[in-house]
Write a structure and sequence with these properties.
Length: about 300
Amino acid sequence: MRTVSGFHDYELIDADAGERLERWGDILLIRPDPQVMWSLGRQDERWHHAHAIYHRSASGGGFWECVKKVPDVWSVRYRELTFRLKPMGFKHTGLFPEQAVNWELAAGLIRKANRPVKVLNLFAYTGGATLACLQAGAQVTHVDASKGMVQWAKENAAASGLQDAPVRWLVDDCLKFVKREIRRGNRYDAIIMDPPSYGRGPGGEVWKLEQQLAELLNEAGKLLSDQAVFFLLNSYTGGVSPTILNFMVSRYVVKGRDGEVSTDEIGLFVTDRGFSLPAGNTTVWIKGEYGQDTGSQSCHI
């Protein structure tokens, strides 16, 4: 498992009885996590001093209970990047801190290439990977189906001093966009995607990962240039095995290309428990000349 280090403005303090206790800058939040199946007691006093608690509703969704005043928007920093946060529906804050390990991987490979790199970031959310790639010197096409998320990503870029960096901000259905790019003859040196289990496009298009991921991977592979550096797929969908993701990327995306496909868990270290909590799986292909060890499961192609 690859775990985040150096994210001083974020800490997973404890995890117990179906919930996480987290510090986001100076704000303490309690959020549900179905993976936290143990109940071992809560010794940390900060459980009693949270600013807000997210409660799930029996009818679906949930709501935030603000115990103390929580700013409408506040910021945290990861290295040189700044992210604006706010409590959102379905327990989110606008940032997945475990993804910092993938930001570092992508940025490192871009720097290692030591040449102009065109990156396509699909399901790009509020722009963590986009900002990391821009800061590493890449040119990025940022695509998300939500107009609000794309605007939020622009705000994060401005807060990080990257407002003038070479990026295209696009509100679009990711699969439709990929197919149009193929027809246009556009190619990319790196592709990043973090698809949800379920979602809707800007025109109401329905996305279901189990039904459409194979098609998306097959089409996205056609967008990789002859000089492609890497392809990265992240998944939070619990029912999809890491072995299956590895196989699909190997067969649909990079079959016949020099390099290695590896799959591993990413996670967050739980300070009070002394272990790392899994937070998804990442499958990555890296061209042979840029190769490095990224995971425990690999498939040579």
